Amino acid sequence: MQTEREATAQTGTGTAQLPQTTEARNPGMALDMDWVRAAQANTSAIERRAATIGTRRSLKKEHQAAWLLKAITMIDLTTLAGDDTPGRVRRLCAKARQPVREDILAALGVEGITTGAVCVYHEMVPTAVAALKGTGIPVAAVSTGFPAGLSPYKLRLAEIGESVRAGASEIDIVISRRHVLTGDWQALFDEVREMRAECGDAHMKAILATGELGSLRNVARASLVAMMAGADFIKTSTGKESVNATLPVSLVMMRAIRDYHERTGYRVGYKPAGGISKAKDSLIYLSLLKDELGDAWLSPHLFRFGASSLLGDIERQLEHHVTGHYSASYRHAMG
Amino acid sequence: MTVKEIFDSMDYGPAPESAAEAMAWIAARGGIAGNYVGGKWGPLREDMVLSNPATGERLAGLTRSTPDEVNVAVAAARKAQPSWAKLTGHQRARYLYAIARLVQKHSRLLAVIETLDNGKPIRESRDIDVPLVARHFYYHAGMAQLMGSELPDREALGVCGQIIPWNFPLLMLSWKIAPAIAMGNTVVLKPAEYTSLSAMVFAEICSEAGLPPGVVNFVTGEGSTGAALVASEVDKIAFTGSTEVGRIIRRATAGSGKSLTLELGGKSPYIVFDDADIDSAIEGLVDAIWFNQGQVCCAGSRLIVQESIADRFHTKLKARMATLRMGDPLDKSIDIGAIVDPVQLETITRMVAEGGKDGEVYHAPCKLPDQGSYYPPTLITGLDPAARLMQEEIFGPVLVSTTFRTPAEAVELANNTRYGLAASVWSENINLALDVAPKLAAGVVWVNGTNMFDAAAGFGGVRESGFGREGGWEGLLAYTRPVRKARALKPIAPFPAPASATGPDLDRTAKLFIGGKQARPDGGYSRAVWAKSGKLLGHAGIANRKDVRNAVEAARAASGWARATAHLRAQILFYIGENLSARADEFAARIDAMMGGRHGAREVAASIDRLFTYAAWADKYDGAAKPVPLRGTALAMNEPVGVIGAFCPDEAPLLGLVSLMAPAIAMGNRVVLAASHPFPLAATDFYQVLETSDVPAGVVNILTGPHDDFAKALAGHLDVDAIWSQSGADLSAMIEAESAGNLKRTWVNNGLARDWFGAESEGREFLQHATEVKTTWIPFGE
After folding, report:
1. Counting C-beta atoms within 10 Å of the first and last residue's C-beta, which end of chain B has fewer, N or C?
2. Which residues are annotated as active site (chain B) (predicted)?
């Protein structure tokens, strides 16, 4: 099943990169407060584990190149700026379709590599959908009053439907951090549950804004509640918080995902976002993912990077692998 | 594999560190590991072969040093020692600093050679062993610098013989050499026969650092060479290795006057409470028992998990074990490397095959390499404390597991072992974790962590895990001694019965004092105590082995004393002083009558003074918070040793007894005191003072009689934690030999005298012997 899924992913046709086209979608479950309250996260121990993942695993030569290509297929190529224009978004979509120079891909003996998705604000969704037509690359829209999630609740819910109707097949919602900080897990559950209902067939990534949750224990508990409420992915950050994706936070969220899978049988995806800009960092994340969650998650169906500048570094590393010479950024097309 | 194939499989692939430079280094030096003595190489003979456990291939030849060759090395160290000790601390600090820098400069060579020789993953030798080695030399460069100002009353021991194991060849070398040479000692070190190569690189570093010839010497070989080093003219033996060999060394050095520290085996508990961060606790086990293939003396090898979470914990643990990567230790993506030698592999295999039947054995589904010594990570569940594998050290990647119901039961299970090296406690409840940590019989406790080490934090065990600490200020005690003029102790015989005796005015019956009660001697024998004048002063009981048994039982039962507040212990010591003061004249007269002198009043006054000293110390002998490189702290706490048997000096019947009793009980120990044999009646009068001073029953027990009669029973008693001897009888050798049974701590006079009235007979030296430093690592952060 694994091979088959990967094979479709490479062809770049159809809806290959839609999350969980080959996984049963997480339907959610009733809020289980015993489970939520029992979740623990020992920060110091988590940091120690996170600090050594990069030294326990090393990828060389062809393996490094192959893993970097895989990382590209997992990138939600993102632009979330106030000055986004249709032109800017079309350029980004072009990059999503052809993230690596043809000659480099040819030298590596692979084809059909695209990014995992393109991620934009609602107003840019139609432009992106049009630009990606026929590629199978999904368009993700950030939603629900992104990034703070403090606009009127009804409008936040309505925003989801608007984006879905505009063609977004993935919705990145933001949770109300205040529900976590005040310990109102029921309110968090209800909110995410209703947002999931609004998403319909579109897949929902729940952004926890981990940098604003105060503790890793809160991250663990919020992760569980979001999954219980039916999130298809849990995602660290909007990219707008002062602290975004980190390895310790990732470890906590991955372990929550593993627990959820152990108990329910459903695989929920993970998306670290913000702050991952180096090829080497992406390999560390993928090593952590492989070791903590297993090979099933090493696929764009279950893992995404929310990143904008990561791709550029990976391109340079790939050219270095092919030519043996260190590369320059201007040798690669901008997105 | 093509890029596309890897893209589909997402395997890690090989990431080997090159062995070329290291092999070239060995070849360029003749391909033989051998002696480095007086700054020169030799002899270098191929008596044996060093091989790479990962492949079985030959790495180098190894010289098996003869006793004569060992003696040559000791002579070189002896010759170098006086001028090395005479250097200023700053001058020695410069050498240690140079060594630290050179270790860093040669870090990759050291790491690769260590991995080739030992089989440990290159990640560990590169990221853990070598950095800790450099750290140890930096830290002790500082100790050399500060010795003059901070340790003015201590001096080097002389020549130290050091024997180290194969599990951390370079790290153990640094733990031994750095404090020794910082304090002005010179050393002869024997690396383990499986792993002698990194010591060769280190010898070259010593030369590059310009270390004076003879300060650091290496002799290679196996057990016979080690035995020759133990028997040689050294002043100290420091040994890290098995408890079995530790016992042999203890017996071999008994009575030689050689100082001894032993860092031995363990079966360290790893306690997981139901409120722990379970995933982190499981990851901790990877670092506890699958670090260095489990060949770690302090490995958390005994999992004690709360029954309510045990099934889920074991399931998760097995899943984690399945993702451990085993293989070529030079590969940078390997978690588990090779077992050091086929002999060790055979031992592990046999132990699991035999002992595993008591439980359920789970081997991680790792693919074993086709060649080399490998053993898969293994978990054995369902074992009870009585199972052999719950008690015996396996020294391999094998975790045994049992369950508990309550915190009290967890502590009981954890302490149900002859060992006491390290322990881990996992709980998110600070009250629980910090309550359990001090109750564990271990020299090191990690709260929510495992296998944390630092030069600033003491490391070492209790019980049969050995004695002495390595690291920190406490580690320097093992390489220094108080500056003191040695004088031979003159034996004192009791005054003989006169031709015509004069009886006492009224018969007074001196008894033994056991468990807070006056007790007749079990044997029913007494000795008449005569004054010099020929007057019969009274009778003193002659204690036998049953009295020893009863006294030790009473002392063990008084364990509440260790938990009494320091303030309470101080109050009671003051009170003893007050009550002795009230009867000062009577005691002075007694001493004068027994000894035939007129110093009684002075001795009583000094005794009261000394009681006040330790009343003062009781709540002031502080522990320390060590600045370890961690967000958190490592607390060094002075814990009582436990039950101490003490043979009091003959020559100061009251002051001598007080000088041993007071520091011991001030620190929370319970004592069994053997009173001055020629002059026992001050001690027997003294129990009346104890009785009126609120001393809980069993805290102080007093025996009388010839020390030789019951010394063996006391020194060999397996529930006594330490023996001190300031006896006039020649007991030192026997006590040290008998102590090997449970490796109790010993502190003997070796026939040397002390001025009991002087400052040398009170204070820190006594408090140090009355305590064990327990280091509790408490990482924190939210």
Report:
1. C
2. 263
Residues of B in contact with A69 (CB under 8 A): 3, 7
Q: What angle do CA A256, B273, B286 make, to 5 degrees?
A: 65
Instruction: Compute how many other C-beta atoms are within 10 angstroms of the C-beta atom of residue B16.
Output: 15
Same fold, B19-240 and B510-630+638-729: yes
Task: Tell me, rounded to whole angstroms, the distance of Cα B677 from its chain centroid.
Answer: 32
Residue B685 to residue B696: CA distance in whole angstroms: 17
Q: What is the pLDDT of residue B362?
A: 98
Contact B383, B352 (CB under 8 A): no
The DSSP letter of residue B535 is B
pLDDT bucket at A22, cuts 50 / 70 / 90: low
Return d(Cα B427, Cα A42) in angstroms, integer.
Answer: 9
Who contacts A186 (Cβ-Cβ below 8 Å, separation ≥6)? A31
State the maximum Cα–Cα separation within chain A, in Å, rounded to a whole number: 56
User: Token pair for residue A167?
Assistant: 């063609």
Domain boundaries, chain B: 19-240, 269-459, 510-630+638-729
Give the whole-angstrom CA distance, residue B335 versus residue B409.
33
Which residues of chain B lie closer than 8 angstroms to A221, CB-CB? none
B308 — contact with chain A (CB < 8 Å)? Answer: no
Nearest CB among B1, B15, B428 relative to A42 is that of: B428
Identity of the amino acid at B378: T
Mind listing the pLDDT tens digit for each residue in B40-91?
999 999 999 999 999 999 999 999 999 999 999 999 999 999 999 999 999 9
- Cβ proximity of B714 and B723 under 8 Å: yes
- Inter-residue long-range contacts of B123-132, CB under 8 Å, 24+ positions, other chains counted: B123/A55, B123/A56, B123/B332, B123/B334, B124/B291, B124/B292, B124/B337, B125/B170, B126/B17, B127/A52, B127/A55, B129/B168, B129/B170, B129/B171, B130/B103, B130/B170, B131/B107, B132/B171, B132/B174, B132/B453, B132/B454, B132/B455
Contact A44 B779 (CB under 8 A): yes
Residues 6+ apart with CB under 8 A from B190: B65, B161, B162, B163, B164, B218, B219, B220, B221, B225, B226, B229
The shortest CB-CB distance from B284 to any of A45, A52, A108 is to A45
Q: Is A45 on the interface with B (CB under 8 A)?
A: yes
Q: How far is B130 from chain A (nearest CA, A)?
A: 15
Token readout for A332 is 């690669």
**In terms of Cα–Cα distance, which of B219, B279, B173 is closest to A288?**
B279
Residues of B in contact with A287 (CB under 8 A): 12
- B448-479, pLDDT tens digit by residue? 999 999 999 999 999 999 999 999 999 999 99
First to last CA, chain A: 33
Residue A17: pLDDT above 80? no
Question: Alpha helices, DSSP H only, in chain A?
Answer: 2-11, 33-38, 43-56, 61-73, 86-97, 102-108, 125-131, 153-165, 177-181, 185-199, 216-228, 247-264, 279-292, 310-323
- CA–CA dist B112, A195 (Å, integer): 55
Q: Which residues of B676-699 are buried (b: 16+ CB within 10 A; e: fewer)?
A: bbbbbbbbbbbbebbeebebbbbb
Q: What's the rounded Cα separation, in Å, for the pair B422 and B435?
A: 16
Please give the residue of chain B at the shortest CA–CA distance from A220.
Answer: B277
CA dist A136 → A1, A231, B443, B621 (Å): 20, 22, 62, 73
| B382 vs A: CB within 8 A | no
Q: Write down the CATH superfamily of domain B19-240.
A: Aldehyde Dehydrogenase; Chain A, domain 1 (3.40.605.10)
Locate A161 and state its tokens.
């439907």
CATH level 3 topology of B510-630+638-729: Aldehyde Dehydrogenase; Chain A, domain 1 (3.40.605)
- Confirm if B548 and B710 have CB atoms less than 8 A apart: yes
Unique residue bearing structure tokens 């070492």: B460
Helix (H) or strand (E) holding B584: helix B584-595
